[in-house]
Each structure stands twice: as structure tokens, then as C-alpha cells.
Amino acid sequence: MGKPLIATPQTQHFPDRLPLQGGGAIRAYDLAFETYGTLNADKSNAVLVCHALNASHHVAGVYADQPKSAGWWDNMVGPGKPLDTNRFFVIGVNNLGSCFGSTGPMHVHPDTGQVYGADFPVVTVEDWVNAQARLLDSLGIQQLAAVMGGSLGGMQALGWTLQYPDRVRHAVVIASAPNLTAENIAFNEVARRSIVTDPDFHGGHFYQHGVVPQRGLRIARMIGHITYLSDDVMNTKFGRQLIGDSYRYTTQDAEFQIESYLRYQGDKFSDYFDANTYLLITRALDYFDPARHFDGKLTAAFAKVQAQFLLVSFTTDWRFSPQRSREIVKALLDNRRTVSYAEIDAPHGHDAFLLDDARYMATVRAYFDRIAQEVAA
């Protein structure tokens, strides 16, 4: 093994107003980001990686003083990996409204001097893309070799091809969808209600009360985590295994190992994630729907897209099913765009996009090999 990739967090301040889809604006905000690799002379090898719900700008590598702090997609991005930082300049950006460095509900409103809390404006995928575009402007990058993301990150990659069609040559969209189904919106709503009905939520201004709505966050995470896994994975990993040797006949304590696992995930999540951020990001998921402005016709929505695409889905992903990726593929083919599509037979559910399936990794590697050849030509 070679030396680990060392990541260095950076922050860019933007004093000017960023108009938002909801009609408001935000100003004097910061974006946290990291870069990996070297930008070439003509700045043609830049790849933007967009993150999903509870991830951040820390995509790859480790921090020099934290050897176990591997980025959330470290198996995908780095020297010699499918997205090879020996060949590409990779940028990870933390979305506005997040709780990992970019300006969000935990930060101070520049006009009031008070923590935003529930007063942080609603942000959308389109707003995140516009903010990312401003960051790329500050880095002097006019066109991306590729934009890449999984799940909500894949929606952002789609957003880039729609909002800035001439600034993206390739889009890699993994385990994503052109919008959420009613079932997905329902899951998000149940998770949000678990947070807002927590007595410690205080209408989103819990910071002023010195508390955190951890009970609501725990339940929200448990709900979400169930949807990220497949039934096969849960049965293989946990089945009906008990915590003890036999039933204890209790209605409140955990009896099964799957219950204990979900409680552990909920406890861990509630210690580091911001409740208002959870509300904002799940609502951004709900709002994303490019076809909404085209009478529900996805083909019409993609008419101005110029990028070439790689789409990947996973057979057991029931939250962002292969059918949803095929909808995107059809809309792109209807517009005579160049599309590669891989449907991976993997047992891991939605979380498969973060894991090391050999066929998946080989597909992404081959696609970026092709992009690298274009950059070098």
C-alpha cells in the first residue's frame, strides 16, 4: 500500500447574495471544500463530487492528525482508484445548510447576530448547484470534466447538466432518481415529524435553550437507515438473532440484534448531526423534480443537456430503484444523448453505491479511463 492521501479542509467566503429558488437569498456565507490531485494547465481535468444526505466535503483521504478519518467515498476517489487523483483534480463541496463546515442553521445570521436556527432559508438542489458554480468560478474552473454523485449527490449531478449544460462534459449519476416517489416523500415526512415533535426541538430554535432534539434525530436516522438496506442484507446480517439467549418478554427494551443495531445507529447520528439540517436536506430531496416545469415530461426537461452520461443502479435498491435510473436513460436517449448504463445485481440495497462491488468499481473506473483519454488528447 502507498501513502494515504492527505486531505486539507478549506473554506471560501462569499459576501454577495445568492438568490434562492424559494424566493429569498443568503449572503455572507461560507462553503467548506476539499480538493485532491492537481489541476492541469488548461484546467480541463476537474471533477466535482456531490455528497448525499449525511456526508460532507470530506470525500477522500485522511486528515494528517486523524489517521482513521477516511473520507466517505475513499474507496472510490484517490491515487489509483476508479476516480484517480493522479489524473483528475477532484473537488468535494459541503452543501449550504449542512452542519459540516458550510454555513447552516448552526451559524450566525449576518443581519441579526443570532444563530439562524429555524430561520435558515429553505435550500434546494438547484441552489446547491448555483453555490457550487460560484466556488468553481473562484477556482478559475469554467468547465468540468465530470460531475459525479450518488443518491442526493446524483440529483445534484443531474442539476448541473440542466442548469449549466455547457460547463459539464460528463455526468456520473449513481443510485439516483429524477424525483422522489410518494413513498420516499412519506419516509422523509415521518422522519421530519419525529424531529419537530420532539419536546426539545423548540420550533427549531433549540440552540437558544441549550438542548438538542436527540430523540427525534435517533428515530429519523433509524427510519432512514432501514430504507438504505435491503431485506436480504438485514436477514443475512441479523435475521431473527436475539441479543440474549431467549425472549425476555419486554415491550420497551431491545430483544433482537437488528433493534440494537438501529438504536446504535440512531444514537451515533444524534450526537453529530444537526436537526434543522436534517429537515432542510430531506425537503431539498422532496422538491427536486426537473420535469415539473415541463408538464411532467422528463424528455422535455433534458432537451438542453449536452453532457455524456454514465448511470449506475443496483437491483436491490428499493429506495432509488433501477426503474428510476431507466427513466433518466430513456429521457436522455430520446434526446439523442450519449448514455452508458449499468444495472448491478448487488445485495446491499441503496448503500451499495458506497461499497466495493467489483463490477460497480470496474464500471466507474472504465468510464473515468475514457474521460482521462479525452483530457490527455
From TrEMBL:
<dbReference type="GO" id="GO:0004414">
    <property type="term" value="F:homoserine O-acetyltransferase activity"/>
</dbReference>
<keyword id="KW-0028">Amino-acid biosynthesis</keyword>
<dbReference type="InterPro" id="IPR000073">
    <property type="entry name" value="AB_hydrolase_1"/>
</dbReference>
<feature type="active site" description="Nucleophile">
    <location>
        <position position="151"/>
    </location>
</feature>
<feature type="site" description="Important for acyl-CoA specificity">
    <location>
        <position position="319"/>
    </location>
</feature>
<protein>
    <recommendedName>
        <fullName>Homoserine O-succinyltransferase</fullName>
        <ecNumber>2.3.1.46</ecNumber>
    </recommendedName>
</protein>
<feature type="active site">
    <location>
        <position position="350"/>
    </location>
</feature>
<comment type="similarity">
    <text>Belongs to the AB hydrolase superfamily. MetX family.</text>
</comment>
<feature type="active site">
    <location>
        <position position="317"/>
    </location>
</feature>
<dbReference type="Pfam" id="PF00561">
    <property type="entry name" value="Abhydrolase_1"/>
</dbReference>
<keyword id="KW-0012">Acyltransferase</keyword>
<comment type="pathway">
    <text>Amino-acid biosynthesis; L-methionine biosynthesis via de novo pathway; O-succinyl-L-homoserine from L-homoserine: step 1/1.</text>
</comment>
<comment type="function">
    <text>Transfers a succinyl group from succinyl-CoA to L-homoserine, forming succinyl-L-homoserine.</text>
</comment>
<keyword id="KW-0963">Cytoplasm</keyword>
<feature type="domain" description="AB hydrolase-1">
    <location>
        <begin position="45"/>
        <end position="355"/>
    </location>
</feature>
<feature type="binding site">
    <location>
        <position position="221"/>
    </location>
    <ligand>
        <name>substrate</name>
    </ligand>
</feature>
<comment type="subunit">
    <text>Homodimer.</text>
</comment>
<dbReference type="InterPro" id="IPR008220">
    <property type="entry name" value="HAT_MetX-like"/>
</dbReference>
<dbReference type="InterPro" id="IPR029058">
    <property type="entry name" value="AB_hydrolase_fold"/>
</dbReference>
<keyword id="KW-0808">Transferase</keyword>
<feature type="binding site">
    <location>
        <position position="351"/>
    </location>
    <ligand>
        <name>substrate</name>
    </ligand>
</feature>
<keyword id="KW-0486">Methionine biosynthesis</keyword>
